DNA sequence: CTTGACCTTGACGCGAGGTCAACCCCTCAT
DNA sequence: ATGAGGGGTTGACCTCGCGTCAAGGTCAAG
């Protein structure tokens, strides 16, 4: 005959846990000796070990209670489910190991692979780190709001960034982003931009596909907003562009002539 | 700028969880818009994903809070500990899978391997199942109270059980265990027992080692108690043995002569 | 103007015990 | 016989990471 602490020790649990199982009706209350102490037999040892085996496998005690009185078929089915859950938990922990290991470094946390590759390409092209950080934050916001468009967008950006003319403009804009709003060099910059757009327009007329037209309005609005927020000078540039007959930032278009 | 549900979705968590992190000081409260709604930037996305990465790895939120503001060395050390814990949890789940799989069948739950082997040998020798169950329960109690002695005891029992004389006595006792306490066949049985002891005694004098003498008193008391509890007729047998000048059950000895 | 989706704070609930508190019981040494 | 120590007993509150109301305020669309 065992005392409660001996029973508990035989299954490697605490006395408190055994009493908890009694309170929950998982383990039947044994008879008491003359002084009111609980006294256990071998069957209690077996039962307690069964409880712990299931509980250690992550089965909730309420489910353990059902299982202890289940028939063989139901029990076998339950064992199958438990095993499946354990395998899943093992898989999740393996994935967690990978993610935690990547935690120390980089952009991978909040961005998909292709966005990370795009940012890396910007670094290769010599874009200043500050500009890359702004760009990264912008893409994080886009990814948060419209993750389903990210892969198309990144494909587009990676194509654009390989065009030397676009890269040249990019560098001009990066440089300009630090200028004050009333910097005298701004009008000349905008003139160069407009000339470039008009050149592109002609090229497009020659039959080159205009990839941007596939972007939906909501996405364009988001991209515009994000970049206007991120780059202080962007609003001023937009004003100057509109004065020259163009509007939009992501989806650049000629304004309708003002006389209409 | 993101609303709380957009932020939450970007990290795959619930809105409630994000608010919980604010309340715990894990994620700084962002600024509010005109209507009092929270508005988040890209940094919040990154931070939230960091929190979730750690939390998904099983790090308590209080620890996450420390880690987010820890220096690189402390952080790297913590990552090491987290990875170690994850590996341990994977190992535990693998072991749980094995134990759960064994749950459906048998004695292995509450007994060590050698005790299971001993019970299997009893079955091979044709011992009735009822007697084996009693014996199993007795050994479970012994294992619960003195697990450190089990391997020696089982070695001893396995040796004994290979001695045909012992096996013969064993069968007689098994049979007798079902008799009423006043069965007329009992005295003859005890006579046979005593004759066997005396024979053993002579054999021992011849130089055979007496293994039992290495058992300590506490263990002998436990074994006696367990078997006297388990087999109703054992007490009566003990009385009869003592009338013939022997005492003890596990550690059988001649009584001192009554005239002293 | 209403509906329905979103946001706010605050409070309680759960699951598996841990951790007191306050008391009883038994044994052993003084 | 007396106290100390190491069992046992019940009961009540604490923990953690949110889920789930409750009781509203806000916003865009029909």
Write the layout of secondary structure elements.
Two copies of one chain form a homodimer.
Chain A: H1 4-11, H2 15-24, H3 42-56, H4 61-68, H5 72-101, H6 113-124, H7 129-145, H8 150-161, H9 164-176, H10 186-205, H11 217-230, H12 234-243, E1 246-247, E2 253-254
Antiparallel strand pairs in A: 1-2
Helix pairs in contact in A: 1-3, 3-4, 6-7, 6-8, 7-11, 9-10
Chain A binds a DNA duplex (30 and 30 nucleotides) through α2.
User: Which two chains form the greatest contact, residue counts included?
Assistant: A-B, 50 and 50 residues
- How would you characterize the largest beta sheet of chain A? 2 strands, antiparallel
Shape of chain A: rod-shaped
Number of domains of chain A: 2
For the termini of chain A, the CA-CA separation is 101 Å
User: What is the string of helix and strand elements of chain A?
Assistant: HHHHHHHHHHHHEE
Number of helices of chain A: 12
Query: Helix coverage percent of residues of chain A?
Result: 55-70%
Q: What multimeric state do the chains show?
A: homodimer
* pLDDT averaged over residues of chain A: 87
Biggest sheet: strand arrangement of chain A = 1-2
Low-confidence stretches of chain A: none
Q: What fraction strand of chain A? A: under 5%
Rg of chain A, rounded, reads 34 Å
Number of strands of chain A: 2
Which secondary-structure class do the elements of chain A indicate? mainly alpha
Structural commentary:
- The structure is a homodimer of 260-residue chains.
- Chain A has two domains: 98 residues, Multidrug-efflux Transporter Regulator, Chain: A, Domain 2 (Orthogonal Bundle); 148 residues, no CATH class.
- Chain A contains twelve helices and two strands; from the N terminus they run H-H-H-H-H-H-H-H-H-H-H-H-E-E.
- In chain A, helix 1 packs across helix 3, helix 3 crosses helix 4 and helix 9 packs antiparallel against helix 10.
- The radius of gyration of chain A is 34 Å and the shape is rod-shaped.
- Chain A starts with a helix and ends in a 6-residue tail after the last strand.
- The model of chain A has no long low-confidence stretch (mean pLDDT 87).
- At the A-B interface, helix 1, helix 3, helix 5 and helix 7 of A face helix 1, helix 3, helix 5 and helix 7 of B.
- Chain A binds a DNA duplex (30 and 30 nucleotides) through helix 2.
């Amino acid at each position: 005959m065992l005392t409660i602490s001996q029973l508990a020790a035989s299954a490697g649990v605490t006395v408190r846990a055994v009493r908890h199982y009694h309170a929950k009706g998982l383990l039947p209350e044994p008879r008491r000796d003359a002084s009111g102490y609980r006294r256990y037999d071998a069957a209690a040892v077996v039962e307690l070990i069964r409880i712990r085996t299931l509980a250690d496998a992550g089965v909730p005690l309420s489910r353990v209670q059902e299982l202890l009185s289940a028939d063989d078929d139901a029990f076998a089915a339950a064992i199958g489910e438990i095993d499946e859950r354990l395998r899943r938990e093992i898989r999740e922990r393996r994935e967690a190991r990978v993610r935690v290991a990547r935690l120390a470094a980089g952009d991978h946390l909040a961005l998909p692979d292709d966005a990370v590759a795009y940012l890396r390409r910007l670094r290769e092209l010599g874009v200043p780190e500050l500009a890359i950080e702004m760009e990264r934050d912008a893409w994080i916001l886009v990814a948060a709001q419209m993750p389903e468009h990210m892969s198309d967008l990144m494909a587009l950006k990676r194509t654009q960034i390989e065009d030397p003319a676009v890269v040249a403009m990019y560098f001009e804009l990066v440089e300009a982003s630090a200028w004050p709003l009333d910097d005298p060099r701004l009008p000349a910059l905008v003139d160069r931009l407009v000339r470039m757009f008009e050149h592109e327009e002609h090229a497009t007329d020659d039959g080159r596909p205009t990839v941007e037209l596939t972007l939906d309005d909501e996405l364009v609005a988001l991209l515009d907003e994000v970049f206007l927020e991120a780059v202080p000078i962007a609003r001023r540039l937009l004003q100057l562009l509109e004065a020259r007959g163009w509007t939009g930032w992501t989806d650049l278009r000629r304004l309708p002539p003002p006389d209409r």
